[in-house]
Amino acid sequence: MKKPIFQMLILACLAVGLSACSAESSSGAGKTYAGDGPISAVATTGMVADAVKAVGGERVRVEALMGPGVDPHLYKASEGDVARMSKADMIFYNGLHLEGKMTEVFEKLNRIKPTVALGEAVEKSRLFASQTYTGSPDPHIWFDVSIWMQVVRDAARALAEFDPAHAQTYQHNADVYLAELESLHREVGEACASVPEGKRVLITAHDAFHYFGKAYGFEVRGLQGISTATEAGTGDVQELAAFIYERKIPAIFVESSVPTRYIEALQAAVQSRGFDVKIGGSLFSDAMGAPGTPEGSYPGMVRHNVKTIVNALLGKDPA
Ligand SMILES: [Zn+2]
User: Which domains does the chain have, with CATH numbers?
Assistant: First the structure.
């Protein structure tokens, strides 16, 4: 039953949108806001919602589709999500194939309303190639705060384009938030530099941390690929276990949006070689923490991750 309803909704929202569209345009990109009250926006991940909220301030009501612990690589839009997106004025998503199972929905929505892939605005020279998807970059851009700042700027650009009457407000909000992120970027760099260079190795459940590694000087290994859509095989586990054993890496990390059994299997494989690797804590990789907690905001999520990583690799108590 699920699929036909979903398709009907897509078709219905398409039909409404296209008939509302002027004849010369079938793209939502150049539209401007005609309403009086706040703009309603739907965002996919918590991180994207956070950026739009920071820039939109009181002018934009933002709803995130994916809550704590939700894996965006595997996420499929429910009927409720499609209904919410068809009612919203604007859609924001990460893009770069992060929400790989929602691509078609975004393409259809983009014909009707501004549907903005914030990751597409990041300078190409700063993106890494993905091992998982040929021709598509690694989507985990929020791990380098300085790259995420480009996303925030693009959220301001997209909002100003849609609602030009409040362009100055968006620019002002963005400037305030960007100043906060700039100091966060410095803070993360300083914390990471406190770990001796040889110990700066980050091993996690899936390969999400390459941008983090490049920005803050860590060697990065993931048990699964860039997307969680492919599972790690026993060969991958043994290979990584041998690496941890040889380098005597003190800690490996679980992620809030990936089942812990993968990292537990890796820990067991290392222990069977006679080396006791610790699980250094849980990182917020592809989803933020619960709303209302410090980790439920982008800066809080970043601070939690850095504190957890640095403490575990220095052999201190968990953060
Ligand atoms: Zn991921």
Answer: 2-23+33-187 (3.40.50.1980), 192-313 (3.40.50.1980)
